[in-house]
Amino acid sequence: MKSNGLGRHGRRSGIIVATFAMAAISAALGPGVASADVYAGMTYADAKSRIASMHQKAVIATVSGDQVATDDCIVVSSMNSMFLDASGEGPDKEVLVNLNCTAPVAAPGKPGNSAASPEGRKALKERQAAHNISKNPAWCNEDPKRLEACKQICDRTGLCEV
């Protein structure tokens, strides 16, 4: 067996040094805390309301598309502002939101999400649910949880009432 000249203790200290080097790199890069965007997926109107309830102001950072009213746009992502205003107020006062204002599903001559995309499939599924609710609204009243789900679908689509 060939020796690399390090001996038994040399290999062990090499492993220890490598371990400490990896720990130092990890510490420098940060812990990588994962957190979900609480406003992503909400309409701008709902996100703006929730942000206001936290004594903050929603500020539109970017907009993609223009087929729906601003309040009906979907929040794609958000982040706390890092800028100070003229009075020196800090970033905890504003939440920057990025909006998707394309139609839920494309139609002939009208741009929107592809029916094959996750967003398009969800929109088509909600349209079908809204159609079913319109045909039989009494079904929603059979259970409080079902009623709440029906209300949410009708609010999102605007295609039914309960």
Automatic annotation (TrEMBL):
Keywords: Signal. Residues 119-129 have a biased composition (Basic and acidic residues). Residues 1-36 form the signal peptide. Residues 108-130 are annotated as: Disordered. This is Uncharacterized protein. The lineage of its organism: Bacteria, Bacillati, Actinomycetota, Actinomycetes, Mycobacteriales.
